[in-house]
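Our consortium's second objective concerns turning raw sequence data into structural hypotheses that experimental partners can test. To show how far this objective has progressed, the report includes one record in full. It was chosen at random from the queue rather than selected for favorable results. The single chain below, 295 residues long, was entered without modification.
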Amino acid sequence: MISVKNISKTYTQKSDTITALDNVSFDIEKGELFGLIGPDGAGKTSLFRILATLIEQNSGQATVCGFDVSTQWKKIRRCIGYMPGRFSLYQDLSIEENLKFFADIFGTTIEENYDIIHDIYVQIEPFKTRRAGKLSGGMKQKLALCCALIHKPEVLLLDEPTTGVDPVSRKEFWAILEKLKAMNITIMVSTPYMDEAILCQRIALIQNGKILSVDTPQNIISKNINAVFEIRSADNYSLLENLRQRNDVESCYMFGDTLHTVFKDNILPQNLPQNIYIQKITPGIEDCFIEQMKK
């Protein structure tokens, strides 16, 4: 349903050329829930805007629903639902008015396609006369998703849909995506949250415009050959500086209230600082991402 072949995109800022995407390639199958995982500035939004036919790539080819993004953009816009990272609906229109507006654009009605948005819309329907600009982050998110779905798209492009949303709304949103996947809608979603990566069928790790790996989350974790140790002390910042200066430490970074550390040759040294808590843990997506970045 989505095919990306050697896509590159650069921007010119004053006299500098910034590379947003560097020879990116992957395919997404029909009905798949595919995640694009990476930090801010990795190139996620540029790729989504290319697939949504809002900007053009410098080189490479991409197709959505079998249509070329450069030459068949009108057909693509009929078969996709696009939810940008920044809330972009009309702030002065109510929930109901925004939804009706998008239905009119696609030549349909709320009633005709109510079955696909029902589970989402019932959560915001009690506030249907409230202006969109007055909604909470979670409600804005649900309204934007309803507007993206109102014409029954084959492909759903969601660019960081849970950024800035509370944990409960994030959990609810991913439950909604599971239901949409069961309807055989192809979903491509980007996120900077590594804990959401595990909820996708396959993920692409992206950093500095380059794809580091494309696989299932489980396979990416299983391919990590480094032993990761969780370390904690009364002063983690001093401990972090201490460990990073050691020759026997491969990598060390803050992870919540602990330090995730990889030692060279996977050998735990004997002369570690005193009064620390340490245990070996199963690597997570974050650990694998950092290992891929180093490579």
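The partners drew two points from this record. The first helix runs from residue 44 to 51. DSSP finds ten helices and 14 strands in the chain. Both points have been shared with the crystallography group to help prioritize constructs.
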